[in-house]
Design brief:
binds zinc ion; 7-stranded mixed beta sheet; 14 strands; 9 helices; globular
Length: 259
């Protein structure tokens, strides 16, 4: 059974990734508006009302802000951990929520033939998780807002057929950029984001298993990165051995297929 994915948007302005495997249709995160998600899926011939679940990675607004709309407007159940929902509700107005399914950040969640493995992260959300989606023998990761290169991360990526991997910042751009010192420290610190070099080194190590078909660089910073620079660093370090895509900060990607 093949699997496809479309990043509808990726980065601090909002995150939402669509995954389809067999009859199962999932959204990871709800950081873009209902209209944006609906229109971008429709442009790829998909109806958002057919989505079985939206699974929330963590409590930051760029991942959960519009979850309430997804549910009320399109009838999509929200899968979220209890601490993530509590923290997000305290911070942003999600509106009335009725169809909530709780999971824990280390759980396996089953949707028909598809299994979603949640993996806890050291990012600075209250209870952050990333996800490996498994369908038949195929495994795809949606791995952003990672904190740092935690134990097992390289082994996880090595076990995948395809991955959305955080490549948030170029270290030199962050160092010389406009952010205040405390914010620079947060981003590069142990609970922040992964740099282009860190993502490239993970991909370089994981590629040695010869399983990865492609990687889509994700959650790029607007101020501290550029798609061209992220691609260049990742290409150089992976020695051009891997098909690379970039998830846009404002538009959807093409349909990416895991064959
Ligand atoms: Zn984020
Ligand atoms: Zn975050």
């Amino acid at each position: 059974m093949s699997m496809i994915a479309i990043s509808l948007q990726s980065g601090s302005s909002g995150n939402c990734i669509y995954v389809e495997a067999g009859d199962t249709r999932l959204l990871i995160d709800a950081g873009i508006t209902g209209v944006q998600a609906q229109e971008r899926l429709a442009a790829h011939g998909r109806d958002i009302r057919d989505v079985d679940a939206v699974i929330i990675s963590h409590d930051h607004g760029d991942h959960i802000r519009h979850a309430g709309v997804f549910q009320r407007k399109f009838g999509i159940p929200i899968y979220v951990t209890a601490p993530t929902l509590a923290a997000a509700t305290a911070r942003c107005d999600l509106g009335k929520l009725t169809n909530i399914c709780n999971f824990r950040s280390c759980d396996k969640i089953r949707f028909g033939d598809v299994l979603v493995q949640a993996i806890p992260t050291p990012h600075d959300g209250v209870d952050g998780a990333v996800f490996v989606i498994e369908s038949g023998k195929k495994r795809m990761g949606v791995l952003t807002d990672l904190g740092h290169v935690f134990k097992d991360l390289i082994a996880i990526v090595s076990s995948l057929d395809a991955v959305f991997l955080e490549s948030n910042y170029d270290p030199a751009m962050l160092a010389s950029g406009p952010y205040p010192a405390y914010l620079k420290q947060r981003i590069r610190g142990p609970h922040g984001h992964l740099s282009n070099i860190e993502s490239a080194e993970i991909l370089c190590r994981a590629s040695k298993e010869r399983r990865l078909q492609w990687a889509c660089l994700a959650h790029l910073s607007e101020e501290n990165n550029h798609p061209t620079i992220a691609l260049k660093t990742n290409r150089e370090i992976t020695d051009d051995q891997l098909a690379l895509h970039v998830a846009d900060r404002y538009r959807s990607t093409d349909v990416l297929t895991v064959a």
